[in-house]
């Protein structure tokens, strides 16, 4: 009988028929032997359910097909179902490096106070082409609440994360009312004193394509403002809020979402409005 801890890899899937097989195969082929693979299709309308049924039959993993419940609900149900000591949620369009699990388990077993371990990623596009854009990988480091809240250092790249399941359960898992589940979790855990680290290893290929959730600017900024509100008494809260409003405004302006951009502009401080790149975009959305 193996003495290695079990790791549950959780794959929530929604309409990723083009990418799901590569994702599953990267998990099946991990160098670490003790893996429980749990895949939940959250009401896909494409060929994902049939692809997953075929893969589950071939590789004998746990597959759940359900009506759409949203990502946070799906993750909470998967965590309740998971048997592993550690959990690794990964997007169904991303790809694991084959030694990802082995590297992270080694560190988290050696340092039991680590609640979350993340790493670096390489971007790939919808055609599996690795981005030629040079990426600066931060050195291994602790990830603190200040890093995450005030943008003073690299955070956790969500698909690279391995989490200690007991900590996630003790802290109440995810809030189904908040769409941006990762920022919510990282701020909550770090604010409550749980140790989070980022290692200087590339752990995944991170997919960038037209349907990425982060491109829905209005949904993102509304969720972010809800997520940061519990920390309104933290030093620098207003600057953090203005940073997000400015970033959302620039994204909305770039995507020619004029109504949203105008609304965001009204919420920004005069200092933010008078920055050079905001002024140039403001003229375009106000005309």
Automatic annotation (TrEMBL):
Q: Does the keyword Transferase apply?
A: yes
Keywords on record: Glycosyltransferase, Transferase
From the record, give the transmembrane residue ranges: none
Q: Where is the Glycosyltransferase 2-like domain?
A: 8-168
Recorded hits in Pfam families, A to Z, give:
Glycos_transf_2 (PF00535)
Q: Would the keyword DNA-binding turn up in this protein's UniProt record?
A: no
Q: Where does the source fall among the domains of life?
A: Bacteria
Which InterPro entries does its entry note?
A: Glyco_trans_2-like (IPR001173), Glycosyltransf_2 (IPR050834), Nucleotide-diphossugar_trans (IPR029044)
Question: What molecular function terms (GO) are annotated for this protein?
Answer: glycosyltransferase activity
UniProt lists the family membership as follows: Belongs to the glycosyltransferase 2 family.
Name under which the protein is recorded: Glycosyltransferase 2-like domain-containing protein
């Amino acid at each position: 009988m193996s003495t290695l801890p079990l790791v549950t890899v959780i794959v929530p899937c929604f309409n990723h028929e083009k990418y799901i097989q590569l994702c599953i195969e990267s998990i099946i082929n991990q160098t670490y032997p003790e893996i429980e693979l749990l895949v939940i299709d959250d009401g896909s309308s494409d060929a994902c359910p049939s692809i997953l049924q075929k893969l589950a039959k071939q590789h004998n993993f746990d597959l759940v097909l359900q009506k759409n419940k949203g990502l946070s609900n799906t993750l909470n149900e998967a965590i309740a179902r998971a048997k592993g000591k550690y959990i690794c949620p990964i997007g169904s369009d991303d790809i694991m490096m084959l030694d990802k699990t082995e590297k992270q388990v080694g560190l988290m077993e050696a340092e039991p106070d680590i609640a979350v371990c993340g790493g670096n990623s390489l971007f790939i596009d919808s055609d599996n082409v690795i981005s030629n854009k040079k990426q600066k990988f931060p050195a291994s480091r602790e990830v603190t609440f200040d890093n995450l809240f005030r943008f003073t250092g690299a955070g956790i790249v969500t698909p690279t994360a391995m989490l200690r399941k007991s900590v996630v359960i003790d802290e109440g898992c995810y809030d189904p009312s908040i769409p941006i589940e990762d920022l919510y979790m990282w701020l909550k855990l770090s604010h409550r004193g749980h140790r989070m680290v980022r290692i200087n290893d590339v752990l995944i290929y991170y997919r960038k394509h037209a349907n990425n959730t982060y491109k829905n600017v209005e949904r993102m900024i509304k969720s972010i403002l809800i997520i940061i509100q519990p920390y309104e008494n933290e030093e620098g809260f207003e600057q953090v809020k203005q940073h997000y409003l400015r970033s959302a405004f620039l994204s909305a302006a770039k995507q020619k979402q004029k109504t949203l951009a105008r609304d965001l502009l009204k919420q920004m401080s005069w200092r933010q409005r008078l920055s050079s790149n905001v002024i140039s975009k403001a003229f375009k959305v106000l005309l």
